[in-house]
Amino acid sequence: MGSYNYLGFAETGANVLKTVADELQHYGTGVCSSRQEMGNLDKHVELENLVARFLDVEAAMVFGMGFATNSMNIPALVGKGCLILSDELNHTSLVLGARLSGATIRVFKHNNMQSLEKLLRDAIACGQPRSHRAWKKILILVEGIYSMEGSIVRLPEIVALKKRYKAYLYLDEAHSIGAVGPTGRGIVEYFGMNPEDVDVLMGTFTKSFGAAGGYIAGKKELVDFLRTHSHSAVYATSMCPPVAEQIIRAMKCVMGLDGTTQGLQRVRQLGENTRYFRRRLHEMGFIIYGNDDSPVVPLLLYMPGKIGAFSRHMLDKNIGVVVVGFPATPITESRARFCVSASHTREMLDTVLNALDELGDFLQLKYSRHSRSSRPELYDETSFELED
Amino acid sequence: MAPPRLPLPRSLLNDTRVSGARRGRAWSRLSDVSASPPVLPAPADVSARRGLEAAQAMAAAGTGQQWVLVEMVQAFYEAPAYHLILEGILILWIIRLLFSKTYKLQERSDLTPKEKEELIEEWQPEPLVPPVSKDHPALNYNIVSGPPSHKIIVNGKECINFASFNFLGLLDNERVKNAAQASLKKYGVGTCGPRGFYGTFDVHLELEDRLAKFMRTEESIIYSYGFATIASAIPAYSKRGDIVFVDEAACFAIQKGLQASRSNIKLFKHNDMADLERLLREQEIEDQKNPRKACVTRRFILVEGLYVNTGDICPLPELIKLKYKYKVRIFLEESLSFGVLGEHGRGVTEHFGINIDDIDLISANMENSLASIGGFCCGRSFVIDHQRLSGQGYCFSASLPPLLAAAAIEALNIMEENPDIFETLREKCKRIHKALQRISGLIVVGESFSPALHLQLEETSGSRENDMKLLKRIVDYCMNRGIALTQACYLEKEEKCLPPPSIRVVVTVEQTEEELDKAASIIREAAQSVLN
């Protein structure tokens, strides 16, 4: 339960991967050139159109690596004299991109709207530090689902703040694209909002689509600008064709364009699995973080000493889990992180849950003080009819 | 009537009568008594302490204010001068602090809420992205349908490919494709996780092993993207306060890596060893002024084997000499020279016959000769091991898809089995270098054995835009006649030292001699028609 395989597209059936195998035979593995020079294949154009359709935006651009998408495009969008407001728990790629851009960075507390609003007001009122000139742009960097916490960003409130204070919003949907939302279109759909409210939609294909690479989507001017000014388009190799084909296949499946409802089934299955898993863990008495709908489930271990023991015991039971300690998390908040997938069956989840039950008793991990049972308590005073 | 005075212990009484010069000694002797370890004290001292305690107890018992006052005054007299002075200064300082005015922090805004609201209403940001004109040269990409191999279909026209860095022609190779297919069947496409979280497959470990053996180093590490390789390797070793001497013509990935590392960057003129030595000597003089700081700063020289921007080779033997003379470490970036130079394709170290252990870190990307995606670093074990925890592109990013790793392994197999392709490639490079020499209006920039040459305008028109337009016309002319070329693209505002506009000519091992000659003649025609 450790890999980011949310929709279960990391599969190896021969039929399933037939198109990918064909493309591999036709195109070969590499590209050997950057997008602007000779590396723009027709496959890339097809993929970009499909991504734009999937997200319901005007245009999109794809890149070869998810990490590099952030670290190479944020410097193209903002520069010196701009302000970046980034969440406390943002991923390293966002932090690196912000640092490379040369803009001033201010951090607000995780998912805390008051902190963000205070920073916005102070920033606009006071201007740039020392010179007090007005800021050129303000960019808010948030993630859809935070991978260590499992929490979902409060998108409606951030969009309201952004409109009030005229800032721009950059949403990194690395973990949430394909994994949340009624049809798997991500956080924007989950909250029922308009994709045009978010200025820059960014995501990766590594997690839900079982491939590699990243994309940035938004208005046509934004994407045109990135085609000319992004570091990746000019200097870095473009995505390799078989990987592009895998993304096209997976995305068509999720959108239902291949004629089956398999994509929708996968998304629904993921949602069910997530809810079931979280509910059972709550019942067992573990402490877990995160929003109830997020497929990333961190289970708190607290004691750094239990990290190794947990991982080894689970491996003995043939279950692979990911355990995280300092410095990725605070030292007293070490955790085990489960990634629920659509390809997990109910039996697999039950196996894992039973193993966790045993291990929880053995290592004393059931810290929760809430009531254990999910069954509603029956009161004596329920309405009953008096018998005549 | 005065209350009876309790007789003070004899030793103390004696001491109080002595002059000020010996007051200090008495005080220290008292403190010695109280601070000494619990050895059996001499009777006199025990009685002294007991007496003092008794006196204090009497005072505390409230036998009158006079007792306390008397004790205090006596203590006052007995205290040494320096102690009194110190206490006096402290008391005066506390009084001053209590009465001084508090100072305001400068950043606190003195704006009233109403003024803030007005400012917030008034503020207008710039648009997120400036508008891009429709005929920006970089906006309309060439669309390549089909594989970018030897014969390439660009914008519907079939051409011979002189623009992709497919030096050994492995993009189209059947063995490589079959290996990738087998891996696809076994593993699927993506790895769904970084190397630390179940993203390490046996193909990755095998590829690392093979690369280390091929380059004859101890260990190697793989990244999933070529650009990220050097851009993550540099900040892993060089931190704020360290000094990096880097060539002016270094590629953009190196520049980004240096920017992320926040070290002091010293540029030296391209391939100019005298300039580098001058900088090193200046640094040495600085170090002698502050030896303690010099001990903790790390110094690196960062060069490329074959420079992408100019096609030159770096003078490695002189660099090694400088390395040992001034004790700096060398990082070598071999993206263009891996699989090209040297008898077996091991790069610029084999070309010059230098022991590979002299270079501290070699980094290359697999996107040129190996026709795969990704990059690797190789070197000594303790150097490479460090990157497994500090390389950002390694720890925080998903690993290389296994089919690409398998393709790279097969490509390495082919390179090891046919070591004569490198010589063939070099022959072809020399041939076209010679053929392009006598074109009027264009000069050839690059070594004769470099597979990626640049053609620059002999006389610039003064404006970069016009130069680029002229070159574009030449490129279009060539494309119409079946030779695919491209201009070398740069980000004009971001490069530190912007190279002049040029056309990039790439030689691959698949091009026949007729094709090379044809390309040279078409370029000559194009130059004549456009520039005259």
Automatic annotation (TrEMBL), chain A:
Q: What class of enzyme is it?
A: transferase
User: Which cofactors does this gene product need?
Assistant: pyridoxal 5'-phosphate
Tell me the superkingdom of the source.
Eukaryota
Q: Keywords for this entry?
A: Acyltransferase, Endoplasmic reticulum, Lipid metabolism, Membrane, Pyridoxal phosphate, Sphingolipid metabolism, Transferase, Transmembrane, Transmembrane helix
Metabolic or biological pathway, per its Swiss-Prot or TrEMBL entry:
Sphingolipid metabolism; Lipid metabolism; sphingolipid metabolism
The EC number of this protein is 2.3.1.50
Q: Which GO terms describe its biological process?
A: ceramide biosynthetic process; sphingosine biosynthetic process
Which Gene Ontology cellular-component terms appear in the entry?
endoplasmic reticulum membrane; serine palmitoyltransferase complex
Q: Where is the Aminotransferase class I/classII large domain?
A: 2-356
Protein name according to UniProt? serine C-palmitoyltransferase
Origin species, per record, is Pelodiscus sinensis (Chinese softshell turtle)
